[in-house]
Amino acid sequence: MNIVIDKAQDQDVERIAQIMNTVKEAIQDPEWFCADNQEFITRHIHESGFILKGVYDHEIMGFLIVRIPKYEKDNLGYDIGLDHSKLSQVAHMESVATLPSSRGKGLQKLLMMEAETILRKDGFTYLMATVHPGNVYSLNNFTGLGYEIVKTMKKYDGKERHILLKII
Question: Would you say which domain of life the source belongs to (predicted)?
Fold first, then answer.
């Protein structure tokens, strides 16, 4: 299977939103995944980061939203006490989702590895993410790529989350 990883464009926003909703409906526990709206998706194509999509046979199978929070209050660097001078070097692996029919093909890993390559070239040092403690599938994908749990706390309207960090 030849999966192509590419940056998402405006014409992909609706499909990414559909995949988010499909994953949210299919997920084992609704606490594990927070779906975003199309405005959020569009903002990350144009100004707040970038989105990578995994495409097979001209169909998007999954995506990864990478958020560049800079000094915004939701920067996960604040949660772990990162020095203010380093906050501009933080990137969030904000949201990653794969269609249920495409799971088990290593797509999340491919998306993450490509994002890390881009972020390393762009001078980012601190890659961060949040994962629900019960979502062992996503957690194993992150830890398998060298992310470590550095804190567990309530985020996103009181939902329990591990905060993960990888220094590149």
Answer: Bacteria
Per-residue pLDDT tens for 118-141?
A: 999 999 999 999 999 998 888 999
CATH number at residue 82: 3.40.630.30
What is the domain count for the chain?
1
Contacts of 90 (CB under 8 A, 6+ apart): 68, 69, 75, 76, 77, 82, 124, 125, 126, 127, 128
User: What share of the chain has pLDDT > 90, as a percent?
Assistant: 70
What does the alpha-carbon distance between residue 18 and residue 62 come to, in Å, rounded to a whole number? 10
* Global pTM value: 0.92
Please report, in angstroms and rounded to a whole number, the separation of the first and last CA atoms in the chain.
29
Query: Residue 39 belongs to what domain range?
Result: 4-167
* SS3 state at 128: strand
